[in-house]
Amino acid sequence: MSGSRTTLCALAPIVLLASGPAPAAGVFRARRVLISAGAWVRDFVPAWRLRVERQLMHWFTPPGPGYGPEKFPVFMFEREGVTVYGVPDMGEGLKMGIHHGGQIVEPDQVERSILPADIEAIRSVSGRIRGLEGRLPDESVVCLYTDSQDYDFVIGERPDLPGMFVATGFSGHGFKFAPAVGEALAHLLTGKEPPVDLSLFDPGRVAPQA
């Protein structure tokens, strides 16, 4: 909702949320609530050990045939401690990015323009792909990672507020797990046992200790 925020007002045992700049904008009550607010999750759990990382995605025009999914794989490699990933041309170009190592930022104060250092960083590694030597990306976009301290997901009930569930800390690799995560969250919110063991993702890892 542009220009407004959702504020957690109370929870015990009923969740009370106010949507908008003031409670008068609307109040919603529920016995369980899911907070999955991306880079803005710290508005709801400010004491949790999470950080937001500025990242870049880049697209290159394929230098020739053979870079589509029928012949070219999804890939990842590491060079001098830098992890690079890429996706074949699905019609919009060959996608590449550097996984982690970005600037730690506040989500409302992110530099969204593409900086010369951003281009130089990807150009220093894109030459590992034959045909991209010395090439500049045709398009670049700034995105955000929400990182946990161990780069594993954070999924479960908030330890100090029963009924408030949080899904965050996907650390740049959550999208591909969206169907499984969504199914697990649906079970949690309806009082059922999730079909997979979520203990690895216990929010207690990042929440302050009592």
| Share in β-strands | 25-35%
The radius of gyration is 20 Å
Q: List the quaternary state of the chains.
A: single chain
Residues in helices, as a percent range: 10-25%
Q: How would you sum up the global shape?
A: elongated
CATH architecture title of the largest domain: 2-Layer Sandwich
Task: Specify the biggest β-sheet.
Answer: 6 strands, antiparallel
Which helices and strands occur, and which strands form pairs?
Elements: E1 6-11, E2 15-19, E3 27-30, E4 33-35, E5 50-60, E6 75-79, E7 82-87, E8 94-99, E9 104-105, H1 116-126, E10 139-148, E11 154-157, E12 164-168, H2 178-189
Parallel strand pairs: 4-12
Antiparallel strand pairs: 1-2, 2-3, 5-8, 5-9, 5-10, 6-7, 7-8, 11-12
